[in-house]
Amino acid sequence: MKRIVIMSAVLAVTMAQASPGAHGPNGEHLDTASATPSAAGLSRLPDGSVNVPMLSQRRLAIRTEIALMSEASAATELPAKVIADPNASGLVQTVVGGKIEAGAQGLPFAGKTVRKGEVLAVVAHHAEPLALSGQRAQLAELRGAREIAQKRVERLKGLEGTVPRKEIEAAQTELASLRARESAIGGGLAAKENVVAPVSGVIASANVVLGQVVESKDVLFEITDPAKVMVEATTADPALAANVSAATIKATPGVRLELIGAGRSLRDGVLPLTFKAVASDGTQQLPIAIGQPVTVIANSKQSVKGFVLPAQAITRNPANEPVVWIKSGAERYIPQPVQYHALDANRIVVTKGLGDENRVVVQGAALIAQIR
């Protein structure tokens, strides 16, 4: 009697560890009579299924859950690129060109925080030799004329009362004009341009070093605010923008996207959609960089029926088909080809290939797929 009780307990534990019989979307059984579990441990059986002992399942942290039919928002994957907010970023360029000199705080580097109006560098302008010699000759001529005009004013002041007042005033006006011309040309010979930050933010890229000679319109620095970033996606469907309810970035769970605008003019055959990137935890740190190519998952206002699973439940078979692993026994897992759509950065919805109430691997599927 005691032996019968023990055997009954073992049978009950085995049935509790096993999952519902694996079946396809139309109720057909996926188990085959030829598939016999191997006692050697981890192994791939002739029918493509995998035998994973219980001890190995614990070591690989295999987790499963019952797949149930439900409704989820239909989603579309869009190619996109991270761009800077035009109101919170800017380029630092020189107007004329010259040799780079350091400012009072030295040259900034990538990652440094700067404020609007802060001097980032100094550009010393250098004219061509022929033009420079002409300016110096003109400056020498003006200096001589100024000295003559200054002596004439002094003589006229000494004769004040005997010469008309208007002659003294005319001489003084001429002297002031020569002084202004001399100062303007003298300042132009050693002119320097202070390159200032157009906005507050972080130096995204620095393209200068001390002594470098830059040309007009060369980009010296790029400044952006890391807390204000946009994502520009493209689509060929003009009606997609009106159906977007939410959006995320694939494989980037910490970022939430808000649609702020959609273009109405085709650009290379597609329409641009502009999203504002917001950190999901409310902080200002976004795990994306300017210029980074990403994939936007745009959730539609329409719903689709399927099985919602974690994104890591999907693997690829040798034919590069997407599959999920179904647990058909205590130690046996069967690969089942499916069709799916991404819902967000962490979830997918299986629309074809999976039956209701199958126990699907939701953690460790990639490890099971590597067993040979």
Describe the structure.
Residues 20-47 are annotated as: Disordered. Keywords: Signal, Transport. This is HlyD family efflux transporter periplasmic adaptor subunit. It comes from Comamonas denitrificans. Residues 1-18 form the signal peptide. The protein is of the alpha+beta class. It has six helices and 23 strands. It has a six-stranded antiparallel beta barrel. A five-stranded antiparallel β-sheet has the order 1-2-20-19-18. Strand 14 (244-249) and strand 15 form a beta hairpin. It is rod-shaped. The relative contact order is 0.21. Residues 1-19 have low confidence and may be disordered.
State the main characteristics.
372 residues, single chain, 23% helix, alpha+beta, six-stranded antiparallel β-barrel, five-stranded antiparallel β-sheet, rod-shaped
Task: Indicate the structural class.
Answer: alpha+beta
The rounded Rg comes to 38 Å
Count of β-strands: 23
What integer is the average pLDDT? 84
Within the largest sheet, what's the order of strands? 4-13-16-15-14-17
Task: Tell me, briefly, the overall form.
Answer: rod-shaped
Please describe the biggest sheet, giving its number of strands, its sense, and whether it closes into a barrel: 6 strands, antiparallel, barrel
Low-confidence stretches: 1-19
Count of DSSP H/I helices: 6
Cα(first) to Cα(last) distance is 43 Å
Classify the beta-strand content into a percent band: 35-45%
